[in-house]
Structures are given as C-alpha cells and as structure tokens.
Amino acid sequence: MNEHQIRWDDLQIVAAVAEAGTLSGAGRKLGLSHATVFRRLNSMEERLGVELFERSRSGYSPSPAGEDLFAVAQRMSRDITDVERRLAGQDLKLSGSIRVTTTDTLFTGLLAPMFQQFRKNYPDISLEVVISNQLHSLSKREADIAIRPTSTPPETLIGRKAGVIQQAVYGAANRWSESRLAVSELRGHHWVGPDIHMGNGKLEAWMAQQEVSNACTYRIDSMLGMWTAVKTGSGIAILPCYLGESDDDLVRLTPPVEDLAIPLWILTHPDLKRVKRIREFTRVIGDALRLNLNAN
Q1: Nearest of 78, 81, 90, 112 to residue 224 by alpha carbon
Q2: End position of a domain, from candidates 62, 89, 116
C-alpha cells in the first residue's frame, strides 16, 4: 500500500461507509449519490490494492485495512475540529455565524422572536438554527451553542442557567373556565400524554404517580403535538407554562407542578468562550429568557 495515494477525501469516504454501513447512508452523510460513493470506493481499493470493506446483504463491514483507515480518519477529523475551534476562539468581532441547536417547542414558544430581535440588533451575525430534540455534539462543531432543558448539563460544556421552565396542566379555553384545581380533581377527564418515543420518562412517571395514566387515551411523540391536541379539545395535558400562558386558546387548570420544573441552559464549548459573538449571544438571549421565564 502506498500511503501517498491516500487523500483526505478518501478517508471521508471510508469513514462515512464505516459509520453508515451502507453506500446510500454514506452518500446522505456526504451529500453524494449512491453511485458516486460506489465509484470512489472501488477506485480507492484499486489504487491501494486492498479490499477495505466486506460486502454482504446486511451492508458494508470494514476489513482490517478499512478499520485502520477508519481510525486514521477519526483522528484527523478530531484534529481538524480542534483547530477550527481554536481558530474560532480567536475571533473577537461581532460578525460571522452562530449555529444554535434547540428543541422545536422552545423555538416555537420562546426563541423565535428573541432570535429575530437579535438578528435585527446584530445584522453582521448570521444565525443557523438546528431544530432537533436530539442533543447535537458541540465538541464536533455540529453546533456552537445548545439551548436545552436539563437538570444535568454535560461536564464537557460551559454555560449559564437561563431560568427554570415551569409546567402545569392546561385545557382548551372554550371547555374550561380559568381555575386552580388540584390534579386529583382532574383524574376523571381525558388526558393527552407523551408517547413512549418522546422519551419523557419524568412526565410519564409523574402521570403514573398522580393516577392519571389510565385516563390518557391520546399519546403523542412531541410536546408541540400535545399542545395542538389540547387546543383542539382532545383532552388536558401537562405543558410548559411559557407555551400555555401565551396562548389565548388555553387555560391553566393547576398551579405549576414543582416536581416537573426543569432548568434551562445555554451551553457552549470551552474553546468558544472567548468568541465575542458567542459571548454576546449568550448574554442577550440569556437575559431575554430569564425575563420571560420569570414572568411565567
């Protein structure tokens, strides 16, 4: 094998196929067609004179040579990411781009107007927003900042607590008059709850403890979906107060449930803490979140 025949593009192909296990999956990761990945992988194996993957009906598995190149690709990717972060950390200007990851519920209920005001006040900073309920890796530069509700922020990240998200039981305003009921008074009503795929174990446990799980005949795998279902009169549900209080179609039925309160964090990687635009974004959005959450 001639090591001078190996290019970074080659290593990216090997890494993508090894991680995805299929050519089509590798193509999606790289933004290439299935045929292009197939052609480039075959060309690479011809040049190197080795088989990099074992083909089977279940997919592509790295051969010993493929495992070797995959390990090299991972090391190089980490090195490149580290350099990018260090270079980004030297940027002291209020310009450039910020990639933010947050949940669909937070974006819809809180962040969208805050982001718009930030863009208006800082026109030289472009925002890239990743709406996902999965935590993207800040160490791999999949995002620069994460705005997430969590009681245990990762120790590898730094940030500030922007406040506490309160939650309460809400119902449709055209079916309920505003009141402050005990949860025990609501057990006989239809409930909307989280589907198992939503992964909200804390809420599921609370509903079981309050003996309302059996009354939950409508389950949805997103908080925004639950919010919509309650608005249309499908039942009552626990919702974040920032979402429920701003909606005239909803009425709060109980006081906030303290057991379901959860801190909201703005997190970034330590290598980016000196970047002026990151510091400014964290300060401005953090202050806006704190004011809004305290109002609820």
Answers
A1: 112
A2: 89
pLDDT in tens, 81-111: 777 666 665 555 678 899 999 999 999 999 9
176 and 209 part of one domain? yes
Task: Find the distance separating the first CA and the last CA of the chain, reported in whole Å.
Answer: 65
CATH code, domain with 171: 3.40.190.10
- Which of 1-10, 139-148, 158-167, 283-292 bottoms out in mean pLDDT, i.e. has the lowest? 1-10
Residue-range definition of the domain harbouring residue 136: 96-165+262-295
7-11 mean pLDDT: 82
Rounded CA gap, 120 and 266, in Å? Answer: 21
**Residue 288: closest CA among 121, 170, 169:** 121
238 shares a domain with 269: no
Is residue 213 located within the same domain as residue 133? Answer: no
Share of the chain above pLDDT 70, in %: 90
Q: Which of 124-128, 174-178, 197-201 has the highest mean pLDDT?
A: 124-128
**The predicted structure's pLDDT at residue 189:** 93
Residues 196, 288: Cα–Cα separation, whole Å: 33
Cα(265)–Cα(263) distance, integer angstroms:
6
